[in-house]
Amino acid sequence: MVRTNGDREHGGGLAAASIGAAALGVGELIAATRGDSLIDAIGRVMTDIAPVPVVETTVALSGKHDKVATRIGVGVGAIAATVGLGALSDRARTPAVAAFGATAAALGLRRPTRSPATVAGAAAAAGVLGIGLRRRPRGLFGTLVWAGAGAGLLVAARALNRDYDRRQHEAIDRVGPMGGISVVPQDGLEDEPGLSSLITANRSFYVADVNLSPPRIDPARWRLSVTGRVAHPLRLSLTELATDAVEFDAVMVCVHNRPGERRAGNGRWYGVPLAKVLEHAVPETGATRLVTRAVDGYTISLPVEPLRSGEWPGYVVIGVNGAPLAPEHGFPARIFVPGLYGQYTGAKWLAELELTDDSHIDYWWKRGWPSEPMWVTPQARIDVTAPGRAGAGTTSIAGVAWAPPHGVDGVELRIDAGDWRPVDLGTETAPAAWRRWRTTLDLPAGEHTLQARAISRSGEVQDGTARSPFPSGPSGFHTVTIKI
Ligand SMILES: Nc1nc2c(c(=O)[nH]1)N[C@H]1C(S)=C(S)[C@@H](COP(=O)(O)O)O[C@H]1N2
Ligand SMILES: [Mo]
To answer: In the 8-state DSSP scheme, what is residue 384?
Structure first.
């Protein structure tokens, strides 16, 4: 590495960083003219290539904010890379900047994030980098100008993308209601403050996927293709699907949901039974796998037979809680097989159902996750530990539990590793849905450890061995310490 500018001032790194910010801003603004994002495209590639331990650590550490964390990581990483480029000699830098731009453009050409605007943005960003690093701003003022320009461009890009989001929301609103949630289900535990609601509001529903921003889809032009080894290929519009849709209650659970976490939500869904779709399409012999493919090519596949026979009641979901799906939850359609973890249950932003043989390989299988569909295990969560209404010294304990598809048969609580004692259950709305529970305790003063466990109607008792989600799903008890 040859440094030509021997007199490089102290703030050389900062100056280069400010150029990096400006280049990123230019790239991001050009991508945003079509509602795309260079940062999100790079973030998706990082997610696709990140080693499993990196993905697992990011998910474990970032909770609900893994997307924000990834975005910030990409932005900071890009600026740090610029500092590295800035330290090269002019001669060494030109090919490095070109390689940088080509890599970014290649990212924009990949299927998941393919977009001409992103490619143009990447090229422009590389241009700004090349020119900016050659002419290096002088002094603090120059650095501030570049950094300010970068920040301004990033804000402008964000505003443009928000406008695209707004238009997507308007298009979704025009779709109108999906299902009739007019009758709000009740389970008798409505008067428990702090307890999760029986039906999770759409805005509170956890979001988990490999994209940094949801694909935007025009509902008027969207069609679900049913293709591959079928006698009757289909192309179904949202309106056509809606004519065969039914409502069902079910909990959706992410395989990353450790005991006590909130990567689970209970919805009143609206969807077309997959058995019905398959009946129309008529799978040919040898069609053993149903590949659910999202608009970006992401796939989750399922065995055809249990879906066709109805043994596994899967659905093409087009609505939840009376409304179309939200953009981040897969608008306009997703596949959901109640009882399977989210990672195995089917793709959001559904584009195609392809019937094929067992040679298909899914996104997550390549990353070391098992290829057999994984079933949600019974889990109980403690939501409430509060002074009880039954009088001084009493404590109200309440929460939710699930064991889809069989249903929750019982929830038990133990105090300070004592005996398991049953609690009161709310009415079950459906076996695949979550079930609320509560009890009142009379505890002596001091510190106490509470643990809850769920028991499935199939006889399975929640496993208390603490285990990380990868690769067989999490286990353990939700444990809460309270002071009386
Ligand atoms: N297209 C697509 N579908 C997907 C995923 C994804 O990354 N891409 N993630 C799956 C996972 S891991 C889960 S837990 C659920 C989450 O659905 P939600 O975000 O609506 O809660 O979607 C599933 N469907
Ligand atoms: Mo997930």
So the answer is: E
* pTM above threshold 0.90: yes
Residue with tokens 């020119």: 131
Per the CB < 8 A criterion, the answer to whether 296 and 209 are in contact is no
Two tokens at 276?
């019905």
Q: Which CATH superfamily is domain 202-366 in?
A: Oxidoreductase, molybdopterin-binding domain (3.90.420.10)
pLDDT, one tens digit per residue, over 360-410 is 999 999 899 999 999 999 999 999 999 887 777 899 999 999 999 999 999
Equal fold, 202-366 vs 379-483: no
Task: Locate the DSSP E strands across 254-303.
Answer: 264-273, 289-294, 299-303
Contact 335/346 with Cβ under 8 angstroms?
yes
Quick: pLDDT tens for 284-293. 999 999 999 9
| Residue carrying the six token digits 């461009």 | 153
Closest CA to 231 of 280, 276, 282: 282
**Which residues are within 5 Å of ligand 2 (an ion), measured at CB?**
208, 254, 342-343
Answer yes or no: is the C-beta of 66 below 6 A from any ligand 1 atom.
no
